[in-house]
Q: What sequence folds into this?
């Protein structure tokens, strides 16, 4: 897989630590010219390798906007936003595509291809990322689905899976190419309490195993305890830079 080197993570001058995601004085606007509406105000955030961060806050506060900017899914406009030490603000299409290869995405509406089986959905993601043999594609897709407890559902079409199972396929699909970063937007919103916890614990386990950094945007109070740190957004501003969960216990 073509990846950017993690050795080149940003140095945080305040803490001296390294960051996989580094946001500095970020502003974002929607709309054109004088009609523009500012939705992010001077956002600053550093996320370290292997950290699991949950971002929460009221509806409309800018969480999804920030997540999509971090994922290179939308052009960042003002300030600095570095992913694996690569500046996203002002980056061209090619650079964004390259950065995106290091990121796995999980959304509320899992976005599985309904005409493909669980295994084919995972395989397709791997095919897009890697040049690997058919045999390895098959092996890796099967292994990760077994790992998320779907070994007996490999050949089920996604429309025949439950909500929790679909979301587990989405997790397998996001993580099969071993991304450095996973960005998840409301991954438990469509799930009941048990399935929601299962799904997030699954993400936590895989992230620890793969030393992957995770940012989860959520309103779901039931999953806050999986985070290493919780950040809170309000009216386009990060109002705290993180509650360290370890210090709460
Ligand atoms: N494409 C867009 N064009 C114009 N305004 C937008 C667009 N997308 C989002 N907004 C506005 O930006 C603000 C932040 O929206 P965003 O979706 O980031 O909030 P959020 O915190 O993720 O909300 P929720 O928790 O409800 O998902 C809102 O006022 C929203 O109306």
A:
């Amino acid at each position: 897989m073509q990846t950017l080197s993690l050795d080149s993570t940003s140095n945080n001058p305040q803490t001296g630590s390294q960051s996989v995601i580094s946001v500095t004085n970020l502003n974002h606007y929607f709309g054109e010219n004088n009609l523009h509406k500012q939705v992010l105000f001077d956002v600053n955030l550093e996320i370290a390798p292997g950290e699991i961060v949950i971002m929460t806050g009221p509806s409309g506060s800018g969480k999804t906007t920030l997540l999509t900017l971090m994922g290179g899914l939308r052009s960042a406009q003002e300030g600095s936003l570095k992913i694996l030490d690569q500046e996203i603000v002002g980056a061209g299409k090619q650079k964004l595509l390259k950065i995106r290869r290091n990121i796995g995405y999980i959304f509320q509406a899992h976005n599985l291809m309904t005409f493909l089986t669980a295994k084919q959905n995972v395989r397709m993601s791997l095919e897009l990322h890697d040049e690997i043999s058919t045999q390895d594609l098959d092996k890796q897709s099967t292994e990760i689905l077994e790992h998320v407890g779907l070994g007996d559902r490999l050949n089920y079409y996604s429309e025949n899976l439950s909500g929790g199972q679909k979301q587990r396929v989405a997790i397998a699909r996001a993580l099969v190419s071993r991304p450095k970063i996973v960005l998840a937007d409301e991954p438990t919103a469509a799930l009941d309490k048990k399935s929601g916890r299962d799904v997030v614990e699954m993400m936590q386990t895989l992230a620890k195993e793969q030393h992957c950094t995770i940012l989860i945007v959520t309103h779901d109070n039931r999953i806050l305890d999986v985070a290493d740190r919780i950040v809170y957004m309000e009216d386009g501003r990060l109002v705290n830079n993180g509650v360290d969960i370890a210090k709460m216990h």
Remarks:
- Residues 30, 39, 59-65 surround adenosine-5'-triphosphate (CB under 6 Å).
- DSSP finds seven helices and twelve strands in the chain.
- Residues 1-8, 11-17 have pLDDT under 50 and may be disordered.
